[in-house]
Each structure stands twice: as structure tokens, then as C-alpha cells.
Amino acid sequence: MDRRLISVIHGPNLNLLGEREPDVYGSETLDDIDGALGGLARELGVDLECFQSNSEGEIIDRLHSCSGRADGVILNAGAYTHYSIAIRDAIAAIRPPVVEVHLSNVHAREDFRRVSVIAPVCVGQISGFGSTSYLLALEALARACKERS
Ligand code: DQA
User: Fold this and answer.
1) Environment class of residue 4 by beta-carbon count within 10 Å: exposed (0-12), middle (13-18) or buried (19+)?
2) Which of 2, 8, 51, 56 has its CA at 20 to 30 Å from residue 62's CA atom?
3) Per residue in 31-69, pLDDT tens?
4) In this structure, which residue's CA is closest to atom 12 in ligand 1?
């Protein structure tokens, strides 16, 4: 059987992790997170690709590129989570399941962060575990791939 591909998409301002509000988002950098994801992907026997963009259009293009190519997507859409109907529509339009992740617990912060316009079209949401949110999402998608095979 072909190896499964999981695509990770990091949204706006996540390139600043490590220096950006460390009390909220921790001290790990995006490279640290991608490195940890790479290690777990090897253990789970899945292929992984990581991408970051601050631009809504580039995130949408990346989601489109996942259709027919990736077996699952891990998406931290950053602030776009709370208002981008265009990203929501892109998730609904593609085939692979998308897991919504957040480093912080968006439900324990400002009211506007409690709203996720993408949650209804994602398979699940993992929020509040720092970089472990991404690792849990990878584990969940790898399991789902196994169950489907
Ligand atoms: C975030 C939460 C969002 O509300 C925020 O805009 C981010 C990061 C998180 O990972 O906790 O940029 O998605």
C-alpha cells in the first residue's frame, strides 16, 4: 500500500512563534513544531509536508492542492479561523479530512475567538495543548488512514 501523506498548514503570524506572545503561545518556534511533527510522522509511518502563509489566498491555494494528493490536512488557520468564509468553503470543497488545531484554548480567551467558522466543515478541533495539539491531530489522522485502508 502507498504511504499516506498528511499536509500541515500554518496560518498567519505563526511564523513568529517563539517570539510572539510567549505567555499565550509558548516558546517553541514553528521549526520546532514542524520538527516534532516530522519525528512523529516517521514513527507512525506517514509522509508529512509543512507549509506556512500569512495570506488567505495562499492558504486556499494550498488547501486546493491537497485534494487528490493528501490523505489528511492539519490546519491552524490562526485568526482566519474566526471569520474566513473563503477558507471554510475551500475546506468544504476538497476531499481530504481537515483537522482544526490551535495552540491556545480558543474557548477560554476573548469571545470572538470562541467562534470558528471552519469547525462545521472540519472532522474535529483540537485546541489548548500547545504544540501537542498538532501531534494529537497527526495521530488522529494517521489512525483514521489506517482504519480506512
Ligand atoms: C491560534 C488562535 C487564534 O485565535 C489566533 O488568532 C492565532 C493562533 C492558536 O493557535 O491558538 O493566531 O490559532
Assistant:
1) buried
2) 2
3) 999 999 999 999 999 999 999 999 999 999 999 999 999
4) 78
Q: Which residues span the domain enclosing 130?
A: 4-148
Q: How far is the CA of 132 from the centre of ligand 1 (A)?
A: 14
pLDDT tens figures, 68-80: 999 999 999 999 9
End-to-end CA distance of the chain: 9
In contact, 14 and 24? CB cutoff 8 Å? no
Helix (H, G, I), strand (E, B) or coil at 67: coil
Q: Indicate which residue of 25, 80, 83, 107 is catalytic.
A: 25
- The mean pLDDT of 6-20, rounded to a whole number, is 97
0.85 exceeded by pTM: yes
DSSP for residue 2: P
- CATH number for 119: 3.40.50.9100
